[in-house]
Amino acid sequence: MTCLLTGRKDPAVSKRKCQILRMTLLALLVVAGVTRTTIPVAHADVLWGRDYFPNVQLITQTGQTVRFYDDLLKGKSVVINVIYTRCRDRCPLETAKLAQVQRLLGSRMGTDIFFYSISIDPDWDTPAVLREYAEKFGVGPGWLFLTGKADDIATVQKKTGLYSRTDAVNPDGHLPSLMIGNEPTGQWMLNSAVDNPRFLAATITNFLIGWKNREPVIAKSYEAARPIAGFAAGSYLFETKCAACHTFGEGDGIGPDLAGVTHDRDRAWLEGFIKAPDKMLAQKDPIATALFAKYKQVVMPNLRLGDGDVAAIMKYMDAQSAASRNRKTR
Ligand code: HEC
Fold it and tell me: Is 127 in contact with 61 (CB distance < 8 Å)?
């Protein structure tokens, strides 16, 4: 007979023997497979399970009370960061980048992967404030914005590696980091929250679900992502620091579309605004004030760019503005 296992016609191997051989091999494979995945699981139960994470109560942007371990972590793959809506520096960029990652992950959001952005300014960030902030960034299913008691949040921060002391360099105690974790396997990894979103989406998927799902890691909305246009200084800076909120000729996103902006606005104003939008707003610059009123909750962040960076970005914006046909009127 032909044994399915060996593929050879072998009269010495009876049908029964072939079956036994097949079952044995299958059993071996199963054992090998199980051992591979259960070792980290058993490990995780001890190290980073219920006993490790606090089960404190937090409140979502829709006012629902949830428990940190039972409702948010247990059995799930998660991405956790800390934010506060009054943050004028890096948080808006961080949230905008995560919103891009969310789009790249597509239907995996809320089924395979959950995002949690926890406020470190819980007195100000009520569920209503968080809801408005989330809406501004186009937050979809599977992404919760959380507030709660300050002490509980500090405990969560410490236990998730997202705690940072405040000092002169870091006055708000906010780290632009993401903790990516897979509670069932006990794998946790700290990442920069302001990496290239496509890199982040691929890292998150590979790290969290790659082992159980071998399909292409990026959902179909991958095609919708803009290509990273080379490493020329201006385009690189724009792609990494601005593109999460701005486009040229594709319509307003989190921030205004920038088609034609170098034509329509005064150069010195643009340079000043790109360098320190917060200062211009504080000085009640009329254009900055009008823009701020129009783009609701989100402010253009001060990205601490040097003069050289601003010059490179201006050059890039000149080229892009000229190339984008649908100029908007400001
Ligand atoms: C987190 C989102 C975000 C990021 C990142 C961001 N911006 Fe903005 N930007 C905005 C918002 C929102 C406004 C509207 C003004 C406001 O609300 O403060 C704006 C306004 C602007 C304007 C004025 C547009 C006009 O109509 O005059 C320019 C120019 C601009 N941004 C350039 C940049 C550049 C260059 C970068 C990268 C170095 C950047 N932005 C990064 C959100 C962002």
Answer: yes
Who's near 23: CB < 8 A, 6+ residues apart? none
| Rounded Cα gap, residues 296 and 137, in angstroms | 11
Range with the poorest average pLDDT among 180-184, 227-231, 306-310: 227-231
Cα 254 to averaged position of ligand 1 atoms, centre (Å): 9
Q: pLDDT tens across 156-195, in order?
A: 998 888 887 666 656 666 667 888 888 888 888 887 777 7
Question: Does residue 330 have its Cβ closer than 6 Å to ligand 1?
Answer: yes
What CATH architecture does domain 233-323 belong to?
A: Orthogonal Bundle (1.10)
**Closest alpha carbon to 133 in 293, 295, 272:** 295
In single-letter form, the type of residue at position 321 comes to S
> Would you kindly state where each structural domain of the chain is located, as residue ranges?
1-39, 57-224, 233-323
The atom of ligand 1 lying closest to the CA of 96 is: 1
Question: Is residue 254 within 6 Å of ligand 1 at its C-beta?
Answer: yes
Nearest to 130 by CA among 80, 121, 115: 121
Q: Which residue has the higher pLDDT, 158 or 202?
A: 158
8 Å CB contact between 275 and 281 = no
Cα–Cα distance between 273 and 93 in angstroms, integer?
16
CATH number listed for the domain at residues 57-224: 3.40.30.10
Asked if residue 256 lies in contact with residue 295, where contact means CB atoms within 8 angstroms, the answer is yes
Task: Give the end-to-end CA distance of the chain in Å, rounded to a whole number.
Answer: 80
Is the pLDDT confidence value at 32 over 50? Answer: no
- Determine if ligand 1 sits within 6 Å of the CB of residue 194: no
Using most ligand atoms within 8 A of CB, pick from 241, 300, 317, 328 the residue to mutate for ligand 1.
Answer: 300
